[in-house]
Every structure is written in structure tokens, then in C-alpha cells.
Amino acid sequence: MTLTPYMRIGPAAHALVIAALTITSLSSARALDPLTGLARVIDGDTISIGSQHIRLAGIDAPETDQVCLDSTVHRWTCGISARDQLSKHIAGRIISCEPHGQDRYRRILAVCSMDNHDVNGWMVREGLALAYTKYSRDYVADEATARELRKGMWAGAFIAPWDWRHRDAHTLILGSVSVPVTAQAELSNPVSSAGAPTPECIIEGNVNIHGERIYHMPGQIAYSKVNMLDPRKRWFCSEEEARTAGWRPAKH
Q1: For 41-50, 84-93, 152-161, 196-205, which range has the lowest pLDDT when averaged over its residues?
Q2: What is the CATH number of the domain that holds 76?
Q3: Burial of 234 (C-beta count, 10 Å sphere; 0-12/13-18/19+)
Q4: 20 belongs to a structural domain
Q5: Is 50 exposed, middle or buried (0-12, 13-18, 19+ CB in 10 A)?
Q6: What is the arrangement of strands in the sheet containing 248-249, beginning at the earlier edge strand?
Q7: Cα 215 from Cα 19, distance rounded (Å)
Q8: CB 116 within 8 Å of CB 106
Q9: Whole-prediction pTM value?
Q10: What is the span of the domain harbouring residue 42?
């Protein structure tokens, strides 16, 4: 409720306004409380602490079914590598995350740290994620360092994660190596073009005629019918990863 200087309200209404403002303030305070504990890694920029899913704010890591080219111009499952390197980095250590809001998938946006260093920034400095400048410029300097040192993705060639999710034949290729004429097709296709990225990543993410994003488990009716060559479609390594990315389970 917005009160103008000329609005008059009675005692009862005034009490309701104060109560509403108090509840809002308390909710906001709770929403901004740090989240601390052992974290599980879902993908290169998403973790969970307890039941809370947390999106590492200000960065964007390659998707788990995204491929890059390494320094020798060979295909590299950079999305899986980003996930696994993050898992290794934080394994068994207490993480503290400072929330800054929520994204459209209801994940908490947060800057996470451990041992007094910024985990989000570490991912960018290692070349395992990019500064997500559409939303923040906090990690631009870290990205410049990774690019100069040719760390991670910057050692080879890749498509920025935000472009890869909406890629076409003209999507820009980044990196430090000269790429063959076939690079556009190689980098635009998910690992799934030749099958699931790894034996553990076999959940199919489909987009139906209504634009709904639905994932299918092995053994479900439509699983074998999904054309995974469609660039809108995704492979997922777990149901948790699919759900946190905004996909719902198939009914059959």
C-alpha cells in the first residue's frame, strides 16, 4: 500500500498498515539472511545448501551438455568440466552465500564464499564461467585475467553460455585459438548430437508444440521419440538439475 500525504486512515486501518509493513520488513530481512553449510553442486553455476537452490550471481557457466574446443581444437565437454571442477573445489568445505534476490526459476541469487574467497569469482578466473555482464559487472576484471592467461574455456574456443542457449548459424565464437570452418556446427550442437554427454547424463529435456519444457526419464513412453538434435533441447544429468533449470517432469 502506498500512502499519500493527504490520505487519512482510522486506528484500525492504521494498525493493519503497520502490521503489513512489519511483516514485509521481517520477510525481507529473512530473505537476505546468509545461507551457510555444505553445498552440493548441480551445474557450473548452481549449487544447493539444504533444500535451497542457489544460482551463483554475476556469472554464467557453460551448460552441462555444452561443448567447447580445447587448446588443440578437440571437442571438450566444458559444461561437465565446469560442474566437476566446482564440485572438487568446494568438496567438504563450508560455504556461505549472501542472497541478492531470486531468478525466474525461483533460485536464490547469491555471491558465495569460503575461506574468505569468492567462489563466483574463482569460477570466472579459472575460465570455467564468464562474467554475466547483462546483470552485473562485478567479475569483468576476473574474466580479463582468465582471458589473458588462457585459462579454461579461454585456452580454446567456445560460445558464451547465454548465446549458446539461443544459438544459430551466426552465433559468435570466442576464445584464443583459430578454429576450423566446421567449428560453428561443432560448437552449436550439444554433446547430445552424438548421444548423451556421459553415461550419467541421460535425462532428455524436450520442448513440446506449446513451448513447454518437459524432461523425460529413461523408460518413459516418449523417451525414445524425442529428437535430441533440436538445439532447443537439452540433456540433463539429474532431475534436480532439470527442475532448477525450469523444466517439469513428463507425466508418463
Answers
A1: 196-205
A2: 2.40.50.90
A3: buried
A4: yes
A5: exposed
A6: 234-236, 203-207, 213-216, 248-249
A7: 43
A8: no
A9: 0.70
A10: 11-155
Q: Which of 183, 185, 186, 233 is nearest to 208 (CA)?
A: 233
171 — pLDDT class (breaks 50, 70, 90):
confident
Structural domain count, the chain:
1
Per-residue pLDDT tens for 1-10?
Answer: 333 343 344 4
- Could you tell me how far CA 241 lies from the centroid of its own chain? 9
- List phi, psi (to 5°) of 120: -55, -50
In a domain, 47, yes or no: yes
pLDDT digits (tens, 9 = 90+) for 206-241: 888 888 999 988 767 778 778 777 777 888 888 888
145 falls within a domain: yes
Cell numbers 574455456 correspond to what residue?
153
Q: Which amino acid is at 107?
A: R
